[in-house]
Amino acid sequence: MIVTKKALARRTLLRGIGASLALPLLDSMIPAFAAADAATPIKRLGVVYVPNGMTMKEWTPAAEGADFELTPVLKPLESHRDRMLVVSGLNSTPPPEQSNAAGVHARASTRFLTDVPPKRSDTSDVEAGISVDQLVAKEFGRETQLASLELAIEGRDLAGSCDIGFSCAYTNTIAWRGAQTPLPMENDPRVVFERMFGNSGSTDRAARLAQIAADRSILDSVTGRIAELRRGIGARDRDKLAEYLEAVRDIERRIQRAEEQSGQQLPFVQQPGGIPAGFEDHVKLMFDLQVLAYQTDLTRVMTFMLGRELSGRTFPELGVVESHHATSHHQNDRTKLENLLKIKVFHSTLFAYYLDKLRSTSDGDGSLLDHSLIMYGAGMADSNLHAPANLPILLVGGGIGQAPGGRHLRFPSGTPLANLHLTLLDRMGVPTVQRIGDSTGRLEHLSLS
Amino acid sequence: MATRPSGRAAFLSGVAVLGTAVWLQAGWPPAGDRPVRAPSAVETVPIVTTAEQTPSSSGAALSSSGRDLLDQYCVTCHSERLRTGGLGLENVDPNQVRANADVWEKVARKLRSGQMPPAGRPRPDAQRADTFAATLEAALDRAAAASPNPWPSVAHRLNRTEYTNAVRDLLALDIDGRSLLPADDTDQHGFDNNGDVLSISPALLERYLSAARRISRLALGRPPSTRSIDTYAIPKLLSQDGRLSERLPFGSRGGSAIQHTFPVDGDYLITIRLQKTLYNAVRGLAEPHDLEVRLDRERVAKFTVGGAEVVPPPASYAGTLSWNPEWERYSHQADNGLEVRVAAKAGTHILGVAFVKRFWEPEDVRQPVRTGWAFETDEMFDGAPGVETVTVEGPITADGPGDTESRRRILLCQPKTTSDEEPCARRILGSLARRAYRRPVTEADLRTLLDFFSASRRSGTFDQGIEAAIQRVLIAPDFLFRVESDPENLPAGTAYRISDVELASRLSFFLWSTIPDEELLDVAARGKLKDRGVLEQQVRRMLRDNRSGALIENFASQWLQLRDLRNVKPDPDLFPDFDENLRDGLRQETELFIDSQVRENRSLVELLTANYTFVNERVARHYGMPDIYGDRFRRVTFSDDRRGGLLGQASLLTVTSYPNRTSPVLRGKWLLDNVLGTPPPPPPPDVPALKDKGANGQRQSVRDRLQEHRQNPACASCHAQMDPLGFALDHFDAIGAWRATDDGGTAINASGALPGGAPFEGLPGLKSLLLSRREQFVGTVAERLLSYAIGRGIQDYDRPAVRRIVRTAAPDDFRWTSIILAIVQSVPFQMRRTES
Fold first, then answer.
1. Selected residue of A125, A192, A275, A322 to mutate for chain B interface (largest B Cβ count, 10 A)
2. Is B235 touching A (CB cutoff 8 A)?
3. Cβ–Cβ gap B371/A218 under 8 Å
4. What does the pLDDT look like over B738-782, one tens digit per residue?
5. Global pTM value
6. B332 touches chain A (CB under 8 A)
7. Which of A249, A398, A408, B210 could be joined to A68 by an S-S link, Cβ 3.0–4.6 Å?
8. How far apart are CA B564 and CA B652, in angstroms?
9. For residues A181 and A161, what is the distance between their CA atoms, to the nearest angstrom?
10. Which residues of A touch B157 (CB under 8 A)?
11. Helices (DSSP H) in B172-220: which residue ranges?
């Protein structure tokens, strides 16, 4: 039995390595930066996830429509009020026959973007469904280096079971490429930086260009050598070396594209050494890298977990010594509620930092924020009750429409979160998906215009 | 169309068989060599010849007895009209094997293994079938000797292991290949050094580029542009109850001995974090424990953790009812400040982080091991703390490249003036290129490298020039690929012997998984490797060298699927004792066992029959062996025949099981594949999973659940060969522990019988069965080893070479060195064929 994998090897190898890799870039595929108007599809999707529910009283505005007040958790996002949609009333409640008493955290995390309940399993035999960001990535990924980027603050847990009866795989991520493929989330900023800029040391233009020049000269030299080698060998060997040549050409194309883009003025970011010790530093660095990723068009779909469900992080910098999860089981105790509120406000302050950066980064004839749709939210509503109904969801960015002033939209109780996902897919210009999870249709009036 | 043989034909075929048998006893064909004629400078005549067979009487006897056997037993199905399985045997002449060698190889193999004729059909008696197969094989061997068919190996990319080892030997630098490069694809036998399967993609090339930059910089000790932060994590499920490494002091507990490469002389910050519960509370704070940090065995810091006078609240189920803010603060911050700034010299050093063992408990009491949810949430206040991560950050201040082994290996000279520079660079790069490209260096090679050197030297230092040239070396196709070129002027389709330099590479990648060393390269460059005596001497030298550990690690772990052991996840409810210590221990046991077998030059058969193994306390406990203490592995002899040999080792038994139960089918299949060399065909699609309970709702034993395999003839054709072998091992549960009853309480029935064979019981019975087919076993191992050695799958036309290897090693009782020498001297290893 002769193992012939020549023709397939490279593509299958591409699929095997890493989360998502794009096909070689053709010269004709230079993305056009569309003008920001309601008719043009949105360019970018971002999802930011906060764990362990929300302090709902301090999140949900009392009034609906355009005159909603900014509640304590939303206050830090004040300057973005006019591009904000607060969405209430959406459910991620599984039908009775699918709900388990245990595993609420695994469920919250998994359903947030997939709308499918996780299969009860604490071994590697996990199963859920494809997440909405991956549906978008399948479309958009054809034009970018990476189809999508999954980032997190907390590293992967390896003890096996994180929520009772449920594997850690469910709480380690919110993005699923397929029913059995949870996507790993990267939490090391050094790795993310190197994916974008290699080892050049920083985003400094001169350094990047020097790196590009060095790479190019090595590859040129190698191309010459391969050609020499190929002359004296048999056909099968020539084919193997041809693979090498193809790989070299591929990289040269990317180098060329990087060189064209090097004209862009990028903010100076030093190559991170690794994971910063402080939470705020780590989060801000990850947000900086996400802005860079959009700017360099490394990808157009990103999901980011500020924390994992069941996160036990403490926030001594806020004076909260109890762990996040413990605090979130507030049982209506006043001190715990105060502490929990501090954490939630802190999260939205950091999110505001991100939105500020997106807005102040130019993108064609607008800003990055003009050409994006960012979703912020939690997989459960009241933390103590682990309520899956009436989830706290926020949509920000040009992708939701152009009319001035934000809105608070309350949907009828029982409306599935999946309906929002379907609507988002429409707004993203992704070919019609009829259903996702337990969706029953699209949401009406989900825009500012 | 089968015809019942008439009395006379039967008589004649009987005579013919007798005649053939007499022949074979006379020791034909001879296994010796004859000197070869060399028609030109290149040896195109095979190095192996056997006496030419006089066609006359032998041919007639062969063809008539063979023809009769085929007509009697085979042609019923394999007629020209029916051509069952695509095979027609009606009109072929068993004497003319050369034309359809691959078909006849399959016929011989199926006859030998008893797979054909299928069960339930008339079969020749074993001796007749074996005799026919033997004569077929002999004819095939003759044909192969007369016209050897060494298929050319394809240009062979270095796999990750080989790359890492090559960098180690070239630059004296230990790199972590697994973090720099992605894993390689494997072939159907699980080998990752199969040239056909090793491809190169843009993603991989990018990693090579990035690795080359990093490695060259690290090798010369240029300070990195930014501080790097390397975090080493200890698996959560590794029990930190005892001394975990030979590199940690006696009396230490837990932690880790980390091998870290410091890029430059300078100051580095080492930070330690301890294991926490899901709710972020540090474990084990009830008593004070001392934590020591050592750099190359010298202590650089000592901390005390735990034991503060803070009272925790009563432990709660979900850890959510914590009302004591003082406790909260303490338990969350108890591992703050476990950091030390050290001055380190550039190079690789051992960083040892471990607790001092407190002897307030008898030494050998292990904490109950838990996994999953219970493990995550138990606050374990009274347990012992464990190390979770060790982070090395730096250099905080850099003092310079230092005097590392890499620099000494690379910088053969240091120029004193500018005019010294080019000759010095030439010398350095010439030596590097020779070893990296594994051949004498040409002026063109040097020119290329010197261009890179000069370009970088213009804007940098001498060292930076060398660094740029090293980058170019590490990306070169001459480094990354093993390319063998056909000599010019040879007609198409000619078999020839590869050059000595090419042979040196094949040898070193086979035995050491790395580039040839100076001695081997030197012998080859001087053309001495052609000499049989010199070749044998080199092989023996290489086997004695430490680097031959790579052969054991890479061949054995892949052949035996040991690498799968990393990923198995036995059900934590059924096997709560399966921790990381056991997982690692089982792997080490098998590696040490095979290492001892090869180094002591034992017979391959002893892989099955050896009555000793290597255990430490954890593995010994798993095997129920008393009175073995400590983490060090030591050799023990079994006192009974319950275990012994590879088939009694839990590593193998675990990778051939499911997470929650044993699988006689998986184990039987493994044995057919890797021991008997007769892999079963794939199962039909849509076979449903086994039911847990029988028709009457009772829990069934695995044997009962598999009864469909025996009752349904469509299943039985394959399963009758597989299941009995697996049942013999059923006394070993899914993680290889001995059991007398299964988890339903039924007594284990480890008996079985192959179709048409005698019954056997348990592992001892299985061993006897396998020993009765020892040549088949040796042939299977030799075939795998040959496949590993030449870096491609074994085809039917290679089988004469495999048979020859077995024959050559037989007088020496099939010892490892004989097998390896025979492989090195075989046609597939030493020869190639020009394109036709």
1. A322
2. yes
3. no
4. 999 887 788 888 988 887 788 999 999 999 999 998 998 999 999
5. 0.81
6. yes
7. A408
8. 10
9. 17
10. 240
11. 177-180, 202-220
The per-residue pLDDT for A65 is 87
Give the torsion through C-alpha atoms of B121, B125, B126, B127, to 10 deg: -150
Please name the member of A14, A21, A225 whose beta carbon is closest to the beta carbon of B477. Answer: A225
The answer to whether residue A12 scores a pLDDT higher than 60 is no
Give the list of residues 6+ apart from residue A104 with CB closer than 8 angstroms, or none: A163, A380, A386, A388
**Dihedral sign computed on CA atoms, order B697, B698, B701, B707:** negative
* Cα–Cα distance, B40 to B19 (Å, whole number): 42
State whether residue A162 sits within 8 Å of chain B by CB. yes
pLDDT confidence band for A28 (50 / 70 / 90):
very low
The kind and range of the H/E element at B536 are: helix B532-544
Read off the pLDDT of residues A250-275 as tens digits, 9 standing for 90 and up.
Answer: 888 878 877 776 666 777 888 888 88
Give the DSSP H or E segment for B484. none
Interface A–B counts its CB contacts (< 8 A) at 224
Selecting from A6, A24, A159 the residue whose C-beta is nearest the C-beta of B237 gives A159
**Position of tokens 């085809």?**
B795
Tokens at B533, concatenated: 């005596």
Contact by Cβ (8 Å): B212, B445: no
What one-character DSSP code corresponds to residue B69?
Answer: H
Q: Could you tell me the two tokens for A96?
A: 């009775």
Considering only CB atoms, B372 lies closest to which of A160, A254, A322, namely: A160
* Two structure tokens written together for B622: 């798993």
Q: Burial letters for B273-296: b for 16+ Cβ neighbours within 10 Å, e otherwise?
A: bbbbbbbbbbbbbbeebbbbbbbe
Residues of B in contact with A16 (CB under 8 A): 182, 185
Judge whether B236 and B275 are in contact, CB under 8 Å. Answer: yes
Two tokens at B387?
A: 């190390």
More confident residue, B640 or A12: B640
The pLDDT tens digits of the residues spanning B300-334 come to: 999 999 888 877 766 554 445 556 778 778 888 88
Q: Do residues B356 and B224 lie in contact, with contact meaning Cβ atoms separated by under 8 Å?
A: no
Interstrand relation of B156-157 and A161-163 (parallel, antiparallel or unpaired)? unpaired
Measured in residues, chain A has a length of 449
Q: What angle do CA B79, B82, B86 make, to 5 degrees?
A: 90
Contacts B797 to A, Cβ<8 Å: none
Task: Please compute, for residue B432, the number of CA atoms within 13 A of its CA located in the half-sphere on the CB side.
Answer: 34
pLDDT value of position A70:
93
Instruction: Report which residue type is found at A66.
Output: A
pLDDT band at B380 (very low <50, low <70, confident <90, very high): low
Q: Is B268 helix (H, G, I), strand (E, B) or coil?
A: strand
Q: Is the pLDDT of residue B282 over 80?
A: yes
Shortest Cα–Cα distance, B207 to chain A (Å): 10
Q: Are strands A407-416 and A161-163 parallel, antiparallel or unpaired?
A: unpaired
